[in-house]
Design a protein that fits this description.
This protein has 119 residues and is mostly beta strands. 8% of the residues lie in helices and 40% in strands.
Length: 119
């Protein structure tokens, strides 16, 4: 398992392995957050700590909720609303040790228009 946390460490994240690649999405919310996402099966991720501090943000098609720590403001992850169509969730890998992530390829995703990878 690889462990990370928000800045104040109230929310802790654990994923089973390094991702194959990181996703830099240019949609209106992701570019503002500056997140680097990785996708994992929902049941493979462990989110713990002071979960009452997680605050959701739901917008657009209302298919995901973006979660952030209400204390330090760090975006931690997004999760699907109804997992039948989306068994995966996005983890913001900026909350993990950057030395662990430094050699992982970053793929650019066009979430603003085509919903396709740009590389």
């Amino acid at each position: 398992m690889i462990h990370g946390s928000c800045h104040c460490r109230a929310i802790r994240l654990a994923v089973p392995s390094q991702p194959e690649h990181l996703i830099d999405c240019n949609c209106s919310i992701c570019r503002r957050h500056g997140a680097l996402w990785s996708l994992y099966e929902c049941n493979a991720v462990n989110i713990s700590g002071r979960l009452n501090l997680l605050t959701p943000y739901v917008w657009g098609r209302r298919s995901i909720r973006i979660m952030h720590c209400s204390t330090c403001g760090c975006v931690t992850h997004w999760e699907p609303i109804g997992t039948q169509d989306q068994p995966k969730m996005g983890i913001n890998m900026r909350n993990f040790d950057q030395l662990v992530m430094r050699d992982i390829k970053v793929r650019r995703f066009d979430g603003a228009d085509s919903w396709a990878y740009l590389d």
